[in-house]
Amino acid sequence: MSFHPNVRDELTIDGVTFHFTEHPAAPGMPYGQEGRQATVYQIAADSDLRALKVFKPRCRVPALVTLANRLAAFADLPGLQVCKRQVLTARRHGDLLRHWPDLTYSIVMPWIEGPTWMQTLIEWQVLSPSQGLRLAESLASILNTMEEHNLAHCDVSGPNVLLCALSQSDSQSPSPVALVDVEQFYGPGWERPEWLTSGSPGYAHRTATNGLWEPRADRFAGAVLIAEMLGWCDGRVQQAAWGESYFDPGEMHQDTERYRILSVVLREKWGAGVAGLFERAWHSEALAECATFSEWLVNLPIPTTLQSSSNMSDLIDHAKHMEQEGDLASALETYRQAQAQTTAGTSLAQELTLIVRDLDRKAKAEARLDKVARDVAGMEREGHWHEAAEAYRRLVEQTIDIRKREEWEAARQRCEQESRLADLFGEGLSAYEESKWAKAKELFGEVVRLRPGYAARGERAAALLAEVEEQLAANARAKAEAQARSTRPKSRARWLTISLAVIGLVAVILASAALWSSGVIGSPHPTPTPVVLVVTSTPTLTPIPPTPTSTTPPTQTPFIIRETVVVRQTVPPPPPTVIVDPVPVPAPATQAPQPSVAQSSTSPDQTVWNYYSYINKRRYDITWAMLSNHFKDKWNCCTPDGKYDYKKYVEWWDSVAHVDIGVVRTRTQSDSTATVYAELHYRLNDGRYILDTEPYILLVVDPISGGWLFDDKVKTP
Predict the structure, then answer these.
(1) Cα 550 from chain centroid (whole Å)
(2) pLDDT of 584-608, one tens digit each?
(3) CB atoms < 10 A from the CB of 109, how many?
């Protein structure tokens, strides 16, 4: 049975009647947010707002009562207001639970205003550097206090961090940041929860596969969150963000473009110390290698705008400087600080009110532009280059922020270049498909000249260019061979005619000379005997023994066997006692050509790229032949009859909708082996998006063809 309350439904808890409130963005629906284990509703008794956490059936366990009693001791710590909670039990709230049985072991706790960090990322809410620093310092302070009490949240992530500083009631909040979803809290001597997550996507350490529950459980996720908060004031970080978290869940601990961007921004804006702590956590093999939160607090700079409250003139000058730089969020925050310290009703207070009002209007206009920019960035990610370039041009014309103008102008130029490359590549593919090889070579050549590593639609421009050039070369060879074949019969006929004439003349002369020397010439009774010479199309002469004397008069009869021409020539014979036998000339021995090993002209990285390109084209007949027996022994063995399992191989790749091919580069290469690094993501037919966690591909040379074969795949070289 699931719990589905209606707006204005009432429930009485310890004598106080609450009702479910209406969602501000969905009229008629109760205000609630669903999570992995429960749904949190807002309930109200007049102005008293509370959170009611209703667990899913499998998570309604009695241990929640003991946990609530233990958490109560920490409810007064900054950011842990949610630890002040009450569990609804049959012993204390029997009447309520008989009416609402799904509320068994539900929790009533304070309602905390403010968006989650995940909402800030999804909505691309712009933060000033001082706002980001304030949030990061507050989170580090909360986690440091917990660490000193030997406590850990065990699921620190974007959905579980509330930003009270960004709510309308910031002045009433005891901490700029608050933690929620504390049912997995670790404490010394506490019972291990029945359910543990393996870490939230985008924040999970490599050791979190089986769940984290230890004092150091928050160090990695906390480091990532602090780094995100500090970097979010920079447009480069905002543009690179994956979605619900800054990092794609599949790229944790890897040296990716997002990691490098965030690391550079932290170093530029907050110093080498802060960047070093983040990099140390990112490359950690164990949680103990991550920095403590005390180290984070030591390395974080002190917010300058919060230090300057004593000097009103300096505060206003600083706000003006921020405004001139185009940092409207920081300027507005600083003006409001000055406004809060000014006596109401004075001319300065009135002036600051007008400034804040005007600046707030400009900031909202910039915020609208920021929202448009996020939409345009989405167009850019989807490859709508022409439309994105035009939209960036309009943004450049409308913004008053110098930094954004430079950023969007660079984006416009980038999109225009991508648009040109996409057009050239598309035209090249069309020419390729129509077998217009010369045109395809020209177009792909221009793409490679502009960007040697360009790839789109699962194809690599350089690979297509090489294929087109090979096709052109093959066509040229075929044309040359055809021309040679068309002239060869005429040349052969002329050669045979001349050869026959010369050899016939030589035969007559030799025969005459032999008869003259033997005195046969002039004999009154000559007996004709044929002398047969064999003429071939090669210089080799193979004589045929003379035929016996026959009563039939010999005649001159030429005949051809294959390319051999036989000429029978009648000449006067020698006397009966003199027989001249032609000396046979042996033909030179012929040998079959030995097979040679063809050397591959394809590089190892190109081989890997070609393999996955063929996979995308479903050319398994080609890819299967690119695997060594060692590879098949490991990955494709075996059917019941002991053969390699080609059927399973095809079934697996048919479950992959597309292979996204990222960076492919050769790491090592010798005469017979090579190692290639390949960043691969698999888009499965069921909607999942999987990172290949074994990016190193080992290749060997095929001794027969000389080409490269896949021999293994490993996580590390």
Answers:
(1) 90
(2) 434 343 333 333 333 346 789 999 9
(3) 22
User: Letter for the amino acid at 347?
Assistant: S
CB atoms within 10 A of CB 629: 12
Residue 445, sorted as left (phi over 0), alpha (psi -120 to 50) or beta, turns out to be alpha
Beta bridge partners of 20: 43
How far is it, in rounded angstroms, from Cα 656 to Cα 660? 10
Pairwise CA distance, residues 458 & 385, whole Å: 18
What is the CB neighbour count within 10 angstroms for residue 162?
25
* Banded model confidence at residue 102, pLDDT cuts 50, 70, 90: very high
Containing H/E element for 364? helix 347-381
* SS3 (DSSP) at 707: coil
Phi, psi dihedrals of residue 22, rounded to the nearest 5°: -90, 140
CA distance 448 to 465: 8
Q: Name the residue among 227, 176, 224 with its Cα closest to residue 200.
A: 224
The pLDDT assigned to 297 comes to 94
d(CA 122, CA 367): 14
Q: What is the pLDDT of residues 270-305, one digit of tens each?
A: 999 999 999 999 999 999 999 999 999 999 986 544
| pLDDT band at residue 234 under the 50/70/90 scheme | confident
Look at residues 233, 213, 237, 218 and name the one whose alpha carbon lies nearest to residue 179: 218
Which residues, 6 or more positions from 244, have their beta carbon under 8 angstroms from its beta carbon?
118, 121, 122, 158, 159, 201, 202
651 Cβ contact partners less than 8 Å away, ≥ 6 residues apart: none
Q: 50 with 110: CB under 8 angstroms? A: yes
State the SS3 of 426-486.
Answer: HHHHHHHHCCCHHHHHHHHHHHHHHCCCCEECCEEHHHHHHHHHHHHHHHHHHHHHHHHHH
Q: What is Dmax (Cα atoms) for the chain?
A: 158
- pLDDT at position 492 is 60
Nearest-10 crossing angle of helices 347-381, 402-433: 10
Residue 709 tokens read as 């074969």
Q: Tell me which residue has tokens 């669903």.
A: 34
Residues, the chain, total?
A: 717
- Mean pLDDT of the residues in the chain: 81
Rounded Cα–Cα distance for residues 670 and 94 (Å) = 77
Task: Compute and round to an integer the Cα radius of gyration of the chain.
Answer: 43
Least confident of 6-20, 306-320, 354-368: 306-320
Query: What does the pLDDT average to over 393-416?
Result: 86
**pLDDT over 80 at 619, yes or no:** yes
Q: How far is CA 258 from CA 134, 240, 263, 430, 600, in A?
A: 23, 6, 9, 34, 36
Residue 702, pLDDT > 50, answer yes
Beta bridge partners of 699: 674, 710
Measured CA to CA, the distance from residue 619 to residue 622 in angstroms comes to 6
Inter-residue long-range contacts of 274-277, CB under 8 Å, 24+ positions, other chains counted: 274/227, 274/230, 274/299, 274/300, 277/223
User: Residue 121: what are its φ and ψ, rounded to 5°?
Assistant: -70, -45
Tokens representing residue 409 in the block: 């102008």
Backbone angles phi, psi at 551, to 5 degrees: -75, -15
| Alpha-carbon dihedral 24, 26, 28, 34, rounded to 10 degrees | -90
Measured at the alpha carbon of residue 615, what is the angle toward residues 610 and 621, in degrees to the nearest 5?
95
Q: What is the C-alpha separation between 629 and 308, in angstroms, rounded?
A: 71
The rounded distance, in Å, linking the Cα atoms of 421 and 415 is: 10
pLDDT above 80 for 462:
yes
432 vs 4: CA distance, rounded Å: 59
Instruction: Specify whether the CB–CB gap between 602 and 707 falls below 8 A.
Output: yes
Lowest mean pLDDT among 156-170, 180-194, 441-455, 624-638: 156-170
Q: What is the pLDDT of residue 501?
A: 74
